[in-house]
Amino acid sequence: MEIVASARKILGPHSEITIRPLVQGPEAAAAAPIADEIYMSPSDASEVRSLEDSLTRIARRHKLSVARQASGNIVVLNFTSGGARTHSIRILTPIASESRSAAISARAPRLAIILDDLGYDRSSADALLALPFPLTVSVIPNLPLSSEVAEDAFRRGDQVLLHLPMQSESSGVRQENIELRVGMSARQVQSTLAGMLETVPHAVGVNNHEGSLATANPALMRELMPALRQRGLFFIDSRTTAATVAYQSAEQAGVRAASRKVFLDDTATKQAVRAQLALAARDAARDGFAIAIGHPHPATIAALAEMVPQLEARGIRLVFASDLVH
Asked: Residue 26 above 80 pLDDT?
């Protein structure tokens, strides 16, 4: 492919290129051509401008229209012909992490921040991925944007989790079409999990989405944990119920695991999120580590943008969820 060949001439040896079929959505005409979604991860930010110029010249040479979008460290070039999209090229510049980690002692209190519920909305994902520090991003499977957001997060240097839908004890909560439910057999759990992971590339672990009924059910947790162990995945118990047995089940099954200590945005205001971040930092300072879970709300993103640099300046070390499982 001319696009990939041109990119490889520009990108450094540690850069990555991935091609996936583009999901057009149910509104696309059945006769519409299959487009490619191409992910490019330059190892050096200085390569981005040359890469954009080269790709744009290729599009023009083939009489394709080019629409450019940019958000944070993500640039998207959409190529179209006669109004139909032929290529969607996503250029993601990874976040440099060595400068921030070098200034913080390895013995510093560690804080992992997990952002749940990614996959529904592109604008909230873009705002989150524009933050100038790496995060643990948990993506709900089987949504139109699940694979795209997971790929974007991975390419920019975030850690990706599967936000595993599980049965809630409340009938009033939003349920996903596919979820783990009480009474499932081991085979059903294995099959459901495998299908979910297909839509969330690069997932290295799992945390539960809802699941107040499921995580309190010992039989279901006994079926889930071996399936995670076989895939080398760790488990973060979101603790949506005090009756959860998920962490205990993970330990018994030999699955690396940890539990959430603080929810950041049960009250989704900037002031409330700042207060919860301060609480998570205090827990980390007292215990040596803490896991906080939030969501891509505007207030949460704004509070993170302000407070994470302040916490790091105070000696709190921002880490991935995988650094806190055992």
From this structure: no
d(C-alpha 8, C-alpha 215), whole Å:
46
Summarised one tens digit per residue, pLDDT across range 279-298 is 999 999 999 999 999 999 99
Distance between CA 257 and CA 206 in Å, rounded? 9
CB atoms within 10 A of CB 169: 15
219, 251 contact by CB (below 8 A): no
Contact status, residue 38 vs residue 1, Cβ threshold 8 Å: no
Domain ranges of the chain: 2-92, 98-324
Whole-number Å distance between alpha carbons of 22 and 308: 35
Count the neighbouring beta carbons within 10 Å of the beta carbon of residue 220: 24
pTM: 0.84
Which has the closest alpha carbon to 263: 230, 231, 297, 238? 238
Give the separation between CA 157 and CA 250, rounded to whole angstroms. 27
Question: Per 3-state DSSP, what percentage of the chain is helix, strand, and coil (rounded to 5)?
Answer: 35, 25, 35
Whether 274 has a pLDDT exceeding 50, the answer reads yes
Question: By C-alpha distance, which of 133, 71, 67, 128 is closest to 97?
Answer: 133
What class has domain 98-324? alpha beta
Burial of 21 (0-12, 13-18, 19+ CB in 10 A): exposed
Q: Name which of 122-126, 137-141, 265-269 the model is least confident about.
A: 122-126
> Which amino acid is located at 234 in the chain?
F
Q: Per CATH, which fold does 2-92 belong to?
A: Beta Polymerase; domain 2 (3.30.460)
Rounded distance between C-alpha atoms, residue 264 and residue 165, angstroms: 20
Q: For residue range 61-99, what is the model confidence (pLDDT) as tens digits?
A: 999 999 998 877 789 999 999 989 999 999 988 876 544
Instruction: Compute the distance between CA of residue 265 and CA of residue 257 in angstroms, rounded to an integer.
Output: 23
